[in-house]
Write a structure and sequence with these properties.
Elements lengths: L1 E4 L13 E5 L8 H15 L4 E8 L2 E9 L3 H17 L12 E2 L2 E8 L6 H8 L5 E2 L47 H10 L20 E4 L12 E4 L1 H9 L3 H13 L3
Parallel strand pairs: 1-3
Antiparallel strand pairs: 2-6, 3-4, 4-7, 5-6, 8-9
Helix pairs in contact: 2-3, 5-6
The structure holds zinc ion (ZN) (2 copies).
The site of one zinc ion has 8 residues, from helix 5.
Length: 260
């Protein structure tokens, strides 16, 4: 599961015990709120994660621990957004103007909102969702911080011989691809002088196939030279998987746009 911490309660905000919420992303992706949610969910699903655990801590105690099946996350967020809109329409949101679910640039899931008499309706949308469990309710005592002995490794050593196999079995695979023009690929490699175009990198090798041509906004969006950069394998992985991939892609797009 992916564990996400709710906003900290550190005594700085006098209201802080009245609400609990967790942000799902540092910033929005291209495509907006729903695209950001889908990205998070498909990324986590690919990693084999099945749940999000949203944890609100208050000094030594865990007061909420919402265990959310990953395939319900988007729908729950949507529902909270609708409820928040609805409170707004009914004039029940007090001074708050923005939607609960859209906090700055982050999709946000709410576990508690007691700042106004009706705010709890947003959190209720989470707690009433089928399959959502509050693990904190299963813990009848306040947890005290007990020093734990983590000097030993509690993961059993893997039995390497039981992993994998020697003779691979072939399985047929059907997949669809976006058609790409080989001339675009060629033009980008030539433009790049056959070296990685990421600023400060410039890696090159003297054999064809070393460089990848990365479609910054995706090949489906545009297979044109101004959406493509030549990248070495490391930079290409970073552009897809690094936590700062969005910033890197912005920088790459700035570079590629000059050729549009
Ligand atoms: Zn790529
Ligand atoms: Zn590179």
């Amino acid at each position: 599961m992916r564990v996400r911490l709710c906003w900290r309660r550190d005594g700085r905000n006098p209201n802080e015990k009245k609400y609990a919420a967790a942000q799902l992303a540092a910033h929005l992706r291209q495509g907006g709120w729903d695209a950001t949610l889908e990205h998070i969910i498909s990324r986590d699903t690919k990693r084999g994660l099945t749940h999000n655990l949203l944890v609100q801590r208050d000094e030594g105690a865990i007061i909420f621990a919402a265990l959310i099946p990953i395939d319900s996350l988007h729908a729950i967020w949507n529902r909270q957004r609708e409820v928040s809109d609805d409170l707004q329409r009914r004039g029940l949101k007090g001074q708050a103007k923005k939607n609960h679910a859209q906090n700055g640039t982050s999709p946000t899931v709410w576990l508690q909102d007691d700042r106004t008499p009706s705010g709890h309706e947003v959190a209720d949308a989470l707690w009433h969702w089928p399959g959502v469990i509050d693990l904190a309710m299963l813990t009848p005592f306040l947890m005290e911080s007990v020093p734990t002995d983590d000097t030993y490794d509690d993961c059993p050593l893997p039995d390497y011989l039981s992993l994998g196999r020697d003779e691979g079995e072939r399985v047929p695979v059907v997949r669809s691809e976006v058609r790409r023009d080989p001339h675009v690929r060629r033009a980008v490699l030539e433009r790049a002088g056959f070296a990685c175009e990421r600023e400060g990198c410039g890696e090159r090798r003297d054999f064809p196939g070393f460089l990848d041509v990365h479609h910054i906004l995706g090949a489906e969006k545009s297979d044109r030279v101004y959406n493509c950069v030549a990248l070495c394998p490391c930079c290409h992985r970073e552009a897809h998987y690094a936590p700062y991939a969005d910033d890197l892609n912005k920088q790459l797009l700035e570079h590629a746009k000059r050729f549009g």
